[in-house]
Amino acid sequence: MNQSTPMTTTxxxxxxxxxxxxxxxxxxxxxxxxxGCDPYNEAAVQRIxxxxxxxxxKGMIVITDSITRLAPLLAPLNDAQRDAIVASWQTDSKRTxxxxxxxxxxxxxxxxxxxxxIPVWITGQHQTVAVRVITHxxxxxxxxxxxxxxxxxxxxxxxxCNPSGQPPAKNFTEAYAYFGEQISYLPAETLxxxxxxQIRDAITGSIxx
Length: 209
Known about the structure:
Layout: H1 12-20, E1 25-28, E2 33-36, H2 42-52, E3 61-64, H3 71-74, H4 79-94, E4 104-109, H5 120-123, E5 128-133, H6 137-146, E6 156-157, E7 159-160, H7 172-179, E8 184-185, E9 198-201
Parallel strand pairs: 1-8, 3-5, 4-9
Antiparallel strand pairs: 1-2, 2-7, 3-6, 4-5
């Protein structure tokens, strides 16, 4: 199968191959569907911005599979800041009541030695990177497949699967209705979270969204 051609697949490995070949991929997250790509492929990121009609200066959320993998980005924070972030990523994975589960994205300052590791087309006009450890097991596995020398944090772009101004897709049917055969798809259920995802500043703890 030609991984450079958009496809619908239930194979995480095939989905990872699509991303590595520069494809855009729609996939389930905790509450809604996301659309993503290899964050180190500038052309792929620009395609997402184009089909979503989203300006680059807003920046892009990225996800990964492991708190440990992000340790170098968390290290410069103080204990209280780091504990709050880690607790937010651990708590939801342990909750059983979907009513209280919520995905948490944090704006992390980028340490100087990683300034060249996080692309400007991901950070936009910001000096931070918006990152989340995702709890969806299939997408965690997908992020693991993306780890490489260029992508040491196993990052995957994760912006809502919708054109700007439209509601995010909640399933494969809605995602396909938005983007058709322009992109690839990894059909599966979301985790059923009902609360919208939250974005917070790692330094101040303030809620951005």
